[in-house]
Structures are given as structure tokens and as C-alpha cells.
């Protein structure tokens, strides 16, 4: 394929970043500029000569600007094949358009404000823009298309003195353009989805997941694996939007662990601290202040917590920062940090500090994605709230109010531990965690072995039912007083009998919370 000369460009952009210096350079190259609406006004205000599209078409913008570029003199100028359609173009007064610079109405940004009325959101669905982009991309044989302001400098450099663009570059820009319109349509598709269907797990027959590359990572889970991170275009909030105050770029494992830490700490309404290691909590605590919560979490398992990732659900103040800085951690996350705390952390320049902002708990249904060879698994997230009405109390001894609160705390904790999962807690602090074991009794043994302090006032949570009474006998021998678990085993009666024998209270949630 030959290089293509650019003599005429159509520019119509919502994102006007870098527009003026870019357009000025095109004009200095002697390229004729066509434009519309706000872009045309911006060019004229900057004294850059441009022709309005309506002048070229001989037809005014109508219907509040909904119809302006959808005209044969525009799309013929973009789509026409130079060697095949030259006579047709001449007959109908169509001039070739060699460069199309278009980015689309900010639909995604508009719907991030959840108060935006439906009608206002629909008005931000671009029609002419995608048509011009796709026309130019299809006709990459002769036309160059630019959808990203970050490519302006690249284009100017390619134009050089000859004002030509080689085919490989045109093809690359075209591919990016099709991705741009694909992602744009995917966001609209998701927005128009039936939220009622989503809430009842009636998954769509087709799923589009618009992702944009954020940055390359140094490596993946291991140094010999390449990796990068993408952002979900429709995301309103998340770890990748956090402000990083200091430290190296987050690694693949840092991001996985930080995501787990954020999800876990948001379970708790009171001041809480979660310490994560290898995507599993090694300590969770809540208290009356962030400092007390951290100190309780650290004391729960300081050996495992060393080198972990810490998440707070309250602003990090001076006293908490002083306590945190005495230990070695990879990352610290919090909704905000006081200036004094940032000054304290600055003395440890390799420590990553992530400010998450005041993220509100969103109780709407969200989906989780897991890639497998040749496909993607999609599921609802585990419900953030446990239905109190669903709880049943099968043992002879019923929980006191204090025991019930302990057991609910244990359940919030076990939801974030990888299966098989057992968590032993006091009223507001994990004492022992058994994670990732291939048998439930092994998970029980591990949690008891790791437990800090006497267990005669402790309770235990299990992420799935107990298949045999052996775990109950071991729990009773450790002195643990209460159990919360889903129930549902064919041997539930045997397990209940074991609890009654040992005078242990047990609650069935009716809900399993496996995390593989």
C-alpha cells in the first residue's frame, strides 16, 4: 500500500485537549480544515482558518445539532476510493477528506454522575462521530483517522515535510479507531441493560467489557511473566483511581492484594483495619479508632502481617501513621491521609501510600469475571449483607446478643478468606485464620494452631458446612464457644448433636461464601 498525502482534514472533537496547537500545525502544513460546532468555534477564536461543514455541504446543522455531518459530501469525501470513485465524486461536487480527527460525545463521563436524567444521557450518544470514524477507518487505503489526542504529536511527526502517512501507520490508527467505537457502544449497551434482569442473574446472551490499558507492570505474579493493568471504562470508582502519594509503581501482586484489602475493610462500619498477605487476610480488627484497630490487627498475627498490605476504613491520622511506620509493609490504603501522616511516611520512600477517597458501599449487584482457557466465567459478587431473617439456630443453646455480634463479625471476616476457610475471632478481632486448606478439619487445626490467646470466649466461622463431626470435636477441645456456618450437609444432624454434646451454640446462615 502506498503512502497517502493529506490535503484536507475534518476535525470534530469533544475532548479539546491539545486541539489548538495541533490544528495550528496542520494549517501551517497547508492542510485545509473542516470543522463543526464547538470545535469550529474554538478554531476561529484561535484565529485558525477553518471551513464550517455546513458551508461545504450547503445544508445547515438541524435538529439541535443532531444532524450535521450525515451528508454525502462528507461521507463521500471520506469513504470514496480515490482510484475508483473519482468521476462520481467530481459529478456530485465531493472533495476528498484525507484526515478525520474525531472523538465522541462524553457518554461514559456523563453517566458516571448517577443523578443524570435518562434523557440527558441519551443526548450524549454520538451518531455522526462513530459514522465518520468507522468510514475513515474502513477507507484506511487513503484516509487517516485519529481518535486520541495523545496521537496528535505522532501524526505531526509522521507528516514531516512530505505530509504523507504510510499505510502501516494508517492501519494502526484505524485499528485503534474501531476499538474506540467498540468500547463506546459497549458502555451504551451496558447502560441500557435491564438492571432488574441483572439483579436476578439473568445474564445477557452477549457480553462486552470495554477495557483501556492503564500501564505496563514490571512483571506478573512471577518475574518471567509479562503483565499490564487495564481499567474498566464504565467504572466509577476503584483501586486504579486511587491517589498514590509515594512509593514505586504497584506490582501485579500488590494490586491483587490491595483489591482484597479494600474489599474486606469495607465490610465494617466501625473503624477497622485489615492486613492482607497473598490475597488472604492474616488479621482483621475493628475498634473505636484507626490506631486501636491497627494495633489489634497487628497483635493478632504480627508474624504473618510483616510485609503485608494494610487497609483502613478511616482517615489515617498522625498517631496511626507513627504506629504503622514502625513496621515493614508494602502498601497502606485509607480513604484519606492527614498531612502529618504523609510527612511521617515520606521517611520510608519505598512504602506505597494509596488514598482511596470516601468510597460509599454500593449494595447493587456487581459481577466478577474470571478468565479460563477459551472463555470467561461471570458471577455475582458475594452479597455484602447477611439476611438476619435467614439465620437459623439448630442447637439447644441459643446465642446471647453478645455472642451473636461476635459470630456476625466472624462471618464478615471469613467471607474474605480463601477456601477452605476457618476464622476464629473474639468480639472484634481475628485470633486465628485457617486458609486454603484441602480439608475442613485441616483448616480448623491451622486456625487453632495460629490463634493468639485463650479461646474460651472465642467463636468460629466456616465458609461452608462441616461434612463430619470431627471438626466440632476439635473446636470444642480448644474451648471455642460458638460456630457460624452455612449448614446444608447430609450430616448436619450429626454436627448439631456434637455441638449439643459440647454445649456449643451454632448458627446456620443458609448461605455459603467460598472464595477459590
Protein architecture, described:
- 36% of the residues lie in helices and 19% in strands.
- It folds into three domains: 4-191, Methylglyoxal synthase-like domain (Rossmann fold, 3-Layer(aba) Sandwich); 243-355, Cytidine Deaminase, domain 2 (3-Layer(aba) Sandwich), CATH 3.40.140.20; 387-508, AICAR transformylase, duplication domain (Cytidine Deaminase, domain 2), CATH 3.40.140.
- α20 links the parallel β21 (482-485) and β22 (505-508).
- The strands form six sheets. Strands 10-15-14-13-11-12 form a six-stranded mixed beta sheet.
- α4 runs parallel beside α8 and α15 packs parallel to α16.
- By secondary structure, it is of the alpha/beta class.
- It is built from 20 helices and 22 strands.
Short structural description:
The protein is of the alpha/beta class and 516 residues long. The protein contains 20 helices and 22 strands.
Helix content: 25-40%
Radius of gyration: 30 Å
The overall pLDDT average reads 89
Based on the structure given, which CATH architecture of the largest domain is correct?
Answer: 3-Layer(aba) Sandwich
Largest sheet descriptor: 6 strands, mixed
Gross morphology is elongated
Number of contiguous helices: 20
CATH superfamily of the largest domain: Methylglyoxal synthase-like domain
Q: Oligomeric status of the shown chains? A: single chain
CATH topology of the largest domain: Rossmann fold
Fraction of residues in β-strands: 15-25%
Structural class based on helices, strands and sheet pairing: alpha/beta
Name of the CATH first level of the largest domain: Alpha Beta
Low-confidence stretches: 196-200, 361-365
**Largest sheet strand order:** 10-15-14-13-11-12
Record field, number of beta strands:
22
Integer tally of domains: 3
* C-alpha termini separation: 51 Å
